[in-house]
From TrEMBL:
It catalyses: tRNA(Pro) + L-proline + ATP = L-prolyl-tRNA(Pro) + AMP + diphosphate. The gene is proS. Residues 38-465 form the Aminoacyl-transfer RNA synthetases class-II family profile domain. The lineage of its organism: Bacteria, Bacillati, Bacillota, Bacilli, Bacillales. GO terms for molecular function: aminoacyl-tRNA deacylase activity; ATP binding; catalytic activity, acting on a protein; proline-tRNA ligase activity; transferase activity. This is Proline--tRNA ligase. Its EC number is 6.1.1.15. It is found in: Cytoplasm. SUPFAM superfamilies: Class II aaRS ABD-related (SSF52954), Class II aaRS and biotin synthetases (SSF55681), YbaK/ProRS associated domain (SSF55826).
Length: 571
């Protein structure tokens, strides 16, 4: 491709709205352009990289037994109502009505659509297992789109769904696709970890996220410093034994605590450590009030709260809801004297506490000398706090450390979360009707591109791996007005194209400095410069990743390129 005939609008300055490296470089190098908040066009360079990532995904998915298809982005509301998610998914689901007032959603994901297709087409266990996938644009009305392609309202995704007659079959497919995902991200050259994760709005149990390690990642990964254990912070289990404290035996006592709203202020007021106080936080889980108790020096893990009571949606209660169920605003809430409508659960650390300081459900009043079991009842003790660095690793090997990560993939064992409510059943070998057992497997394709841009760059621009780069070679004629340079560049362009290299020829009438700066910015693996020594039959080769350069005769060019690309493929 000749650069004068394509669209690569590079920028000298970093756009003001771009606050992370990938966003800055993809804009400056002419890979993407923003059309609206969280909505981007992929320009020719960006589209070529997307296609390279898609091809890797297709190869690995096909090798794992997947079959590609394509479903509509526009989905009838009735399908989402069948699964129950029309009411629970939240404002991120883009909803609309057609001219006949029928409700639709723009696909944020396709569990409902694929389940409805399979229930109509597959009736016997003999037709299973099946793994179907698509690569398609998805839509989510993000409250705060940011970081360019990393959190947008429109994005490209690979989503796959497997259907099974038995749990064993699902487990086998899950393991295959788990390995396929590792192969995909390895082939993309990414530094990543597979971590235990929560299923969120998708539903189901047993799932992993694939996290690209990055300082700008929105997720925190908790990992062992001595083993392979890794989990999203929200799913990292606490593996800690607490020494049982002996209570003083004193009766609970009300104490006026005016303006002491935070746990730090309350602890200071009583002249004690935060670990002797209890945070009482009211959550609404599936529209029911749940009071959550954790030690004052710990933080509540909302995902663990939801899972502890087998809920689907857990949200911190509003001030109005707190008053409705406890009679007081947050800051003075406590476990004593609650109505039977409120379920009380506590973290395991609370069970080991002796005398407790906690809210009294009266404005500006706290109790001291509280004892669980004597002054209030806890329906369930569970691990519901956030793990902290230095905690023992859940697998018993080493201690927990934190890192930041960008989620690029997620695999789920859905079970019958969708097939049961949507009546997607098959007849088993005994003629009995059973719901299909499902798995779900997603990769953010455009997000993966951005994650690679985060990892593959330097101060001059992008540095693409050879198998991902939009072109193999950037061929630059320093001065197109020089007849020898122009002719040499054209000859080499034809030669390299005949050798099946994907070549971008910079034939623009620009200054050499502009061409070289743009070349570094775009990040193609190899640059070939046709300059003043073209009259001697000599050109320069420069490797983008390490800056090494060589001067070679034109006749030696293809042999040297083969050597360089062999070297790059082994790195």
């Amino acid at each position: 491709m000749k650069q004068s005939q394509t669209l690569i609008p590079t920028l000298k300055e970093t756009p003001a709205e771009a606050d992370v490296k990938s966003h800055q470089l993809l804009l400056r190098a002419g890979y993407i352009r923003q059309n609206a908040s969280g909505i981007y066009s992929f320009l020719p360079l960006g589209k070529k990289v997307l296609q390279k990532v898609e091809n890797i995904i297709r190869e690995e998915m096909n090798a794992a037994g997947g079959v590609e298809m394509l479903m509509p982005a526009l989905q009838p509301a009735e399908l989402w109502e069948e699964s129950g998610r029309w009411f629970t998914y939240g404002p991120e689901l883009m909803r609309m009505r057609d001219r006949h007032e029928r409700e639709f959603a723009l696909g944020a994901t396709h569990e409902e659509m694929i389940t409805s297709l399979l229930r109509d087409e597959v009736k016997s266990y003999k037709r299973l297992p099946l793994t179907l996938y698509q690569i398609q644009t998805k839509y989510r009305d993000e409250k705060r789109p940011r970081f360019g392609l990393l959190r947008g309202r429109e994005f490209l995704m690979k989503d796959a769904y497997s259907f099974h007659a038995s749990q064993e079959s699902l487990d086998e497919a899950y393991d295959k696709l788990f390995e396929a995902y590792k192969n995909i991200f390895r082939r993309c050259g990414l530094n990543f970890r597979a971590v235990l994760a929560d299923s969120g709005a998708i539903g189901g149990k047993d799932n992993h996220e694939f996290m690209v390690l990055s300082e700008i990642g929105e997720d925190t990964i908790a990992y062992s410093d001595s083993s392979d254990y890794a989990a999203n912070l929200e799913m990292a289990a606490v593996n800690k034994q607490y020494d049982k404290q002996s209570p003083s035996g004193k009766e609970k006592e009300e104490v006026s605590t005016p303006d002491q709203k935070s746990i730090e202020a309350v602890a200071d007021f009583f002249g004690t450590d935060k670990e002797n106080t209890v945070k009482s936080m009211l959550f609404i889980v599936d529209e029911k009030p749940v009071l959550v108790l954790v030690r004052g020096d710990h933080e509540v893990n909302e995902v663990k709260v939801k899972n502890a009571v087998n809920g689907r949606v857990a949200e911190l209660a509003t001030e109005e809801q707190a008053i409705q169920y406890t009679g007081v605003k947050p800051g003075s809430i406590g476990p004593v004297g609650l109505s039977e409508d409120v379920t009380v659960i506590a973290d395991n650390a609370v069970e080991a506490m002796g005398d407790i300081v906690a809210g009294a459900n009266k404005e500006g009043i706290h109790f001291k000398y509280l004892q669980a079991g004597r002054d209030f009842e806890v329906s369930q003790y569970a691990d519901i706090r956030v793990v902290v660095e230095g905690d023992p690793s859940p697998d018993g090997v080493g201690t927990i450390k934190f890192a930041r990560g960008i989620e690029v993939g997620h695999v789920f064992k859905l079970g019958t979360v969708y097939s049961e409510p949507m009546n997607a059943t098959i007849l088993d070998e005994n003629g009995r009707s059973n719901p299909m057992i499902m798995g779900c497997y997603g990769i953010g394709v455009s997000r993966t591109l951005a994650a690679m841009a985060e990892q593959f760059n330097d101060e001059n621009g992008l540095i693409w791996p050879g198998n991902i780069a939009p072109y193999d070679v950037h061929l630059i004629a320093v001065n197109m007005k020089d007849e020898v340079q122009a002719q040499t560049a054209e000859e080499l362009y034809k030669l390299l194209t005949d050798y099946r290299y994907d070549v971008l020829l910079d034939d623009r009438k620009e200054r050499a400095g502009v061409k070289f700066a743009d070349s570094d910015l775009m990040g193609l693996p190899v640059r070939i410069t046709v300059g003043k020594r073209a009259s001697e039959g000599i050109v320069e080769i420069k490797i983008r990743s390490n800056g090494e350069s060589y001067e070679v005769q034109k006749e030696e060019l293809t042999d040297k390129l083969q050597e360089i690309f062999r070297q790059l493929s082994n790195e």
